[in-house]
Each structure stands twice: as C-alpha cells, then as structure tokens.
Amino acid sequence: MKNRSASKLLVLITGILILLMLANIMSASGSFMDTESSTNSFSAWTWRQWMQTTPSDFSNDVLNNTDALARPGSVLLSNITHYIFAFQGNDHRAFWRYDQSSRVWATMSRAPATIGDGGCLAYVGGMSIYALRGNNQRNFWKYNITTNTWSSMANTPSDVRYGGCMAFDGQSSIYAFPGNGLNSFWRYNLLTNSWTVLANAPGTVRDGGAMIYDPTTSCVYAFQGNDQHSLWKYDIGRNAWTALTPTSADVRFGGAMTTDRQGHIYAFFGDNLRAFWRYDISSNTWAALASSPVNVRYGGALAFDGPGRVYAFPGQSRSVFYRYDVPSNTWLSETSAPGAVQAGGSLAAGPVLYRTSGRITSSVLDSGIMGCKVYGLYWDGIAKSTNRIEFEVRASDSLVGGYPSSSWTNVGGSSPVTTGLPSGRYLQWRATMTTSEAYITPVLQEVRIYYSDS
Fold first, then answer.
1. Looking at the predicted structure, is the pLDDT value of residue 1 above 60?
2. Given 50, 192, 254, 382, which residue has the most CB atoms within 10 angstroms?
3. What is the pTM of this model?
4. CA–CA separation, 334 vs 311, rounded Å?
C-alpha cells in the first residue's frame, strides 16, 4: 500500500510540474521531469524563463517598421497615415479630411444634406464612418472611405438636435443620444441596420451632450450638457445608468469628449470657456489640463489619435484647428480648416493605415550556460485572417558583432513551439509581422522563452 501511494504521489507531482511549464506562468524558474526509464527512475531538468511583455522590454529591441509606443505593452506595425475627418456644420454640407503627416486638408464628397446642431461623426473601424445629420432631422448616413461615397441608413427613432452625439463600441453597435431636450438613448446595430431604444438617461440632454465608449470597462460615458455638471456611466450589460463625479463647471454648447481607450476621457466643457480636463475612469476623478488656446463654443469637437494626440475644433464660427500633446500638456496650432466651424461641427479619427510588413528583433540574452537548451517559445498576440506573425530563433555559444553566430531558424507562426529549437549560450528571437489589409495590424503582446538553467 505504501509503495502504491508513493507511486501515485510521484505521478501526481510529475503531472503538476509539467502543466506548470505549459501554462503561462510568471515565475523565473522551476523543475520538470524530462524522461522516464524502464526502471521507473526519472531524470530531472530545471528551466528559466525569458519574458518580454512591457513597454520597457520591447524598447530594448530593434524595431523595423514596427511600433512599441502606440499601444504600450504591445507591438504593432507602424502606421504611415493618420486621417482626421470633419463636418463643418453651420448648415453646410462640407466634409473634410485632414492628413496629419502633410498637415493638409482635403475636401471630400459632400454630405447628402446640410449638417446642423447635433451633427456627429463616428469611425467604426475598417473603411467606414457613420454620421448623424442633426439639424432637427432623423437622417443617418454611412460614409465609405475607400470610394468617397455616402449611403443612407435607417433613420433615427426621433429627430436629432442640440446634444445629439454617438459612440462606437468597437464591435457592432453605436450608442446615441438625440439630444433635443430628451432623455432618450438608443443603440444602432451595424449588422442589421436597425435601432433599439434603451434605458432612458438620468436627465434630459441638450447642447453640450457628448459621449464615448471605454473598452477598459465596456461602458458608455456621457455628458448631459444642458447647463448641468452631470457625467454618467451606462453599463451595457445591465442596461443601467450611474451618476459619476460631476464636472467643476456647467457643460453647455461646445461640450465635447474623446478617449485614449486606456481609461481616460479628455473633455471640453464648452460654454465659451477655455477649460480642458481629463477624467480618470478608475479613480472617478477630474484633473485640469492646459487650457485651450481660445474659448470653446458651438461646434467644439475633439478626437483622440494616439499616441498622445488630441485634435480639436473650438468652433464659434472659426476655422482654427489645434492639437493637444498629452505628454507635454501643451497645445499646438495645426493647419486651419477650409471653412468656419459652427454648430454641428464634428471630428472623427480614423482610419490609421499601417505598413504591410515590419519586424521586431529582440535583444540578446546571455544565459551563461554553454550549449544551453531551449525548451519552448511561446507568444501571445492578435492576428486576423489577413495578418501573420512569424517567428525565428537563433542560439550559439559565441558572438559575432554582438549577436549569436548561428543562422536564424524559422519556427513558424503558431504558438507554442517546443521542438526544433536551437541550443547555445546566447539566445535571440525575431518576429516578422505582415498584413494584407492596410487598416488592420497584427498585435504582438508577449514573448516567452523557456531554457535550461544548468
């Protein structure tokens, strides 16, 4: 009985240790059973982990047409073009595109009808932008960025006017206020081209109404406007609203908000003020930032375009256009818009067009062990059908020019890799990232190599 119990215990311990190796563990070392002989004796080996997952980790690597700053903790293909799209409002049909690289505005195909108070734009990924006409009308449109054409979609459930606004959830829904002194709140389904009425907002929304969707909490955040201080959160899963820390001043015409999609909201309070604030979602607190260069009123609008850039219209029948730099907390003048922006002025960032290929090459790890055995290469990332992330590894006991002297071994694009890996004291990996759709980038989030420590 004792021998059986000991045997079972040994098998159990062995299984647990093997599972620990295969899991995404965070510890630096461990022990595993490597082989089992016919005499039931075990040969044990020990391992260490080399992991890269933070911005500082990736910043030590060599980046070629890749970017480790745009989404901290991940590596993307670097972008080659950023566009900001804009409505002029002011009862005009003007629709413009701003190229951030050249700092030049282009006049695009005009909106199907004049845009007035409540006009709003929302980029929904790919090559599509949706638009509320406002102007006390129900028109709702889709703009195709590739063909530069507009299409009419299902009308909103009621007229949209002052305070009309919307936000895309990153998946298949747009959430919207009609404003116009109503507390109505809707969801638009991109897949079915249909509107659904949701739980009413806690108060009536009018001029200064604004909203964003935050992916860190999967919630919608909104200003009531209407000369109020109210900031609300809408929980999508519960179809319920919650009041949050109010603003320090009334939010009125020109009130606007945008998000960095990492838990922060940047906001104008409008009302002919220069106030510019940041709201921290996790702590439910407001912090004052550098004031806008001019007062913000009708047509005030914001759009975040990372890393660390917020673009802004102050409105009030002016064509001036500004960029706020997040790291330095300063405002910079951009090229003025082609016309004066008033009520219905709106901004939408997107799309970002990425390079079709790029590479990240890791720093060199000195394991300190001659002939060091590499047991596994694991990585986490996001790659759709049009994306690829392919890995290569090299290892040797000597360096040439500061790098392993051996050639690269291609290990493919599927994680994990536990066979066919080279051995050597000095270890290095590199990943080649590709996309066939310029607006979609693969995302590399973490790389782990398990190697012998003896």
1. no
2. 254
3. 0.72
4. 9
